[in-house]
Design brief:
single chain; mainly alpha; de novo design (two linked rop proteins); about 0% strand
């Protein structure tokens, strides 16, 4: 009987450790909302050049990938996808395919998303 009780107690503890805590879920939701807001901003930005639509679509794909990684609790990859987004925005700015104010807005928001995801480990 003691063995059964120990087994049940261990099962309960293990199941609780894989379930997201309310604080974690709230933080993930907050970070997802930031990625969603960044997606809306990216849709509203003006891209210049013959590959404007392709550049915008590529940035949106990076945000979708970050969101998917975050939903899967893969925070390092979610951060990497936002860093990839940020790097592409910087590249587009250097190539004059997006204006400086738009690039600053997008990189600032990406940085906020990265900070949010980094905070998940400490919340």
């Amino acid at each position: 009987m003691k063995y059964v009780f120990t087994l049940v107690a261990t099962s309960i503890v293990l199941s609780m450790s894989v379930m997201p805590t309310p604080a974690y879920a709230a933080t993930v939701a907050k970070c997802q909302a930031q990625i969603d807001a960044l997606r809306v901003q990216t849709l509203q930005m003006t891209f210049i050049g013959q590959n404007a639509a392709k550049d915008q679509a590529g940035l949106l794909a990076k945000l979708d990938n970050a969101s998917t990684k975050l939903a899967a609790r893969n925070t390092p990859d979610a951060i990497q996808k936002l860093n990839d987004f940020r790097a592409k925005v910087t590249q587009l700015e250097e190539q004059a395919e997006i204006g400086d104010p738009d690039a600053v807005t997008l990189t600032t928001c990406a940085d906020q998303g990265i900070g949010c995801i980094q905070s998940i480990g400490t919340s």
